[in-house]
Every structure is written in C-alpha cells, then in structure tokens.
C-alpha cells in the first residue's frame, strides 16, 4: 500500500462524513492538534531521566487522547460517536493540582523556557491555546464532544504546570516576568 493517494492534490481532504477543502476550520483544528502532538513527542525526547517517569506516562497518555480529539474534530457524520471522554478532563485536573503543589509557589507570570523538555511543553501550551480558539470557532456552528473544549482548556494548564515541574525537578528556577503584577494568588 502506498502512503499517497493523490486525492488531495487539488486541495481537498476527507473528514469523517464528507470531503472538504484543506482550509476547512475542522482541518485547521485537527492540524493544530497534530502539531501539538508532534511538539509533545519532542518534549518527551528530552525527558529521559527517571525523575520524569510520571510525566512521560502522562504525556504518552495525552498523545493517545490527542488522536481521539483529532478524530472527534474531524467527525461531521450523522453518527456522532465521540472518542473524547469526560474522565480525560478529570485526570488532567488531578495531575495539574499535583504538579502545582510540587512546584514552588508562583505569584507572577514567568518566561517560557528552562530545560529543553520544559521549553517544549511551553510550546505545547501555546499551540493548545491556538487550537482552543479554532475549536471554539467550530463549536459556534457545529457540535463537538461535550468534553472537547474543557479538555483543550485544561490541557494548556496541564502543560504549564508540567513545564514548571520539569524545571523544578531539574533544579532550574522559573524566571519571573519582571513587570508582572501578582496574578497567581
């Protein structure tokens, strides 16, 4: 079997349920999810020390969930059988709380960066925010899984908390944004 089909040479692709242009909002959204997943793989490649075993397990779990989310974003069929589950949101919330407690208290915005794995998790966070905005555009007109918008929103928070934990475990302090007001209480 060949990987190329030549069906998209004219700028169209298949969603689940119909063919659309590659500039379709859903194609843009799941493309952003795919981009995030790739950056997540890059972050994982830097988190090789045993102190990151729990993070690696989380991030691999999230990579699988991102495929679920991408499939849901591509689903315009009459049969809306969503893959993304509400329990994914709860899991993220629990992990965010644990990582937030582990890292030093924070009052101000911080500069993205630090360890390479943390820096790429910050990139994941920003791509997630972009994907969230795109998903919101879709949800204005088309149904999405009930958990989708919550999941994407929590995911950016998760990446922020995880990046801080990576730096903390590596012994690297976050760099506060020097003109930040107290934003975390």
Automatic annotation (TrEMBL):
GO molecular function, one term: corrinoid adenosyltransferase activity
GO biological process: cobalamin biosynthetic process
Keyword field contains Lipid biosynthesis: no
UniProt keyword annotation of Signal present: no
This protein's UniProt keywords: ATP-binding, Cobalamin biosynthesis, Nucleotide-binding, Transferase
Catalysed reactions listed for this entry: 2 cob(II)alamin + reduced [electron-transfer flavoprotein] + 2 ATP = 2 adenosylcob(III)alamin + 2 triphosphate + oxidized [electron-transfer flavoprotein] + 3 H(+); 2 cob(II)yrinate a,c diamide + reduced [electron-transfer flavoprotein] + 2 ATP = 2 adenosylcob(III)yrinate a,c-diamide + 2 triphosphate + oxidized [electron-transfer flavoprotein] + 3 H(+)
Gene3D superfamilies reported for this sequence: Cobalamin adenosyltransferase-like
Pathway(s) served: Cofactor biosynthesis; adenosylcobalamin biosynthesis; adenosylcobalamin from cob(II)yrinate a,c-diamide: step 2/7
Assigned EC number: 2.5.1.17
Entry similarity comment: Belongs to the Cob(I)alamin adenosyltransferase family.
Subunit structure comment from the entry: Homotrimer.
Cross-referenced PANTHER family: CORRINOID ADENOSYLTRANSFERASE, CORRINOID ADENOSYLTRANSFERASE MMAB
Protein name, per record: Corrinoid adenosyltransferase
